[in-house]
Design a protein that fits this description.
Length: about 425
């Protein structure tokens, strides 16, 4: 396997691995992230390419273009919302419309990269744990790749949520229990059978696909980073990937690259090894010294920036032209659950029943299979009483809130506040 383009690195202990079918560190059991030795690119690199996210191939973890599995996703519209912007007092408000992707969600981005990597690793089957959009995206890409696809989901799931996945030939594995149970079973079967479960054992590569959102936004704004970005999140994985996508990397002038390549072709690997050892002994001691691509990259960075390549690699967080501030709102669980219950009661008082009734002809749409709608649809379809439907809304909302808090508390960079601490939040962000 060519390690010249990327490798895996433990997020905790920083141990490096070849890009194989691995997602947990052998030493400390920490998660593995994809790390890159980026080639020489600039904004002109991506001109006149296909209108998909694969136009950014150099910045994604696939080594061989022949392994790309594409269903023409990406390069979705960035629409200027003039009326909404005027209402909010914003002159340049844009909305990125990822709902026009082939399976109607941004999940086409990470699923496509994960399945392309599964193909590159020689895996013979793929799958996911999902209750909706990811199942569709995974199944569509699996069909394009000619790979069997297994969707793990709770046995009581509304079949309409996975109908699109089934239409692509996916195998539905019904798990008695919650989504968390389906996730656990998918992990166990995926590891034991060598199945590439895109959002579990392929997650290191899966999250890389979401970065393409950042690249597209920047390119569509003439390679300008937006002043502010609002990202709706569930687990937060997309938010982290977008932040990673906006990371600043040193640009290498083409003349430097061409000059070094020409000199290498004349003088050979020994000359290259000596040059890198001379200018960056730290990098030389820890790299594959028989890999000319990685050695050339070290020389390129040094000649362009005057900095040793090891100095870039040693940074746990790459320097960005902006600061990311993560704020979490939390409170006592009893208080939170009481507020959730109260909010549901208020929704009913404010016309939830009437709203859902008007949407009955469209209840098969994915956007209406969310908490709050699906439970009331069940009532109107005579599947349960109104009392039970309301109870289910409250319960499912509480479960979702619990999953969100569990996920975000893993991020040590998130600063937590009580909802009433507005003054403290303002001081924290410098307002």
């Amino acid at each position: 396997m060519n390690m010249g383009k990327n490798h895996l690195q433990c997020r905790e202990c920083k141990k490096e691995y070849e890009p194989t079918f691995k997602y947990i560190c052998d030493e400390c059991f920490g998660p593995l992230d994809v790390k890159y030795d980026f080639p020489s690119v600039n904004k002109d690199t991506f001109k006149d390419r296909e209108k998909t996210y694969w136009r950014y191939f150099e910045l994604l973890p696939i080594v061989d273009k022949n392994n790309i599995v594409s269903i023409e996703a990406g390069m979705t519209p960035l629409v200027k919302a003039e009326k909404l912007g005027k209402e909010l007092g914003l002159n340049n408000l844009y909305i990125k419309n990822d709902s026009v992707n082939p399976t109607f969600s941004f999940k086409d981005r990470p699923a496509g990269v994960a399945i392309s990597k599964a193909k590159e690793l020689g895996l013979t089957a793929v799958g996911c744990a999902s209750t909706g959009n990811l199942a569709s995206a995974t199944a569509a890409h699996a069909a394009a790749a000619g790979l069997p696809c297994h969707v793990f989901a709770p046995s009581n799931i509304e079949m309409a949520k996975i109908a699109q996945a089934l239409s692509y030939g996916a195998n539905y594995i019904a798990v008695d229990g919650t989504y968390d149970d389906a996730n656990r079973i998918a992990a166990q079967i995926g590891d034991s059978k060598g199945i590439g479960v895109v959002n579990i054992n392929m997650r290191s590569h899966y999250v890389e696909g979401s970065k393409t959102f950042s690249y597209e936004v920047a390119e569509q704004l003439d390679w300008q980073v937006p002043d502010q970005l609002i990202v709706p999140v569930g687990s937060g994985a997309m938010l982290n990937a977008i932040c990673k996508g906006f990371d600043k990397m040193p640009e290498i002038p083409l003349d430097i690259r061409e000059s070094l390549n020409e000199e290498f072709s004349k003088k050979g690997i020994s000359w290259l090894q000596e040059k890198v050892k001379e200018i960056d002994p730290v990098f030389f001691e820890n790299c594959d010294t028989k890999n000319p691509q990685r050695l050339l990259r070290a020389l390129e960075v040094y000649k362009t920036t005057g900095e040793r390549f090891s100095s870039f690699k040693s940074e746990t967080t790459k320097k960005r032209p902006f600061e990311i501030v993560k704020i979490g709102l939390s409170t006592d669980r009893k208080v939170l659950y009481k507020r959730i219950n109260t909010r549901v009661d208020k929704m009913l008082e404010n016309g939830l029943l009437e709203e859902v009734e008007s949407l009955i002809p469209f209840q098969h749409k994915n956007a209406l299979k969310t908490v709050g709608y699906k439970e009331i649809f069940a009532f109107y379809n005579n599947e349960c009483t109104l009392e039970k439907a309301v109870e289910n809304i409250k319960q499912n909302t509480r479960r979702f809130a619990k999953r969100q808090l569990t996920w975000f508390r893993k991020d040590e960079k998130t600063k937590w506040f009580e909802p009433h601490q507005l003054d403290e939040i303002k001081r924290f962000i410098g307002v």
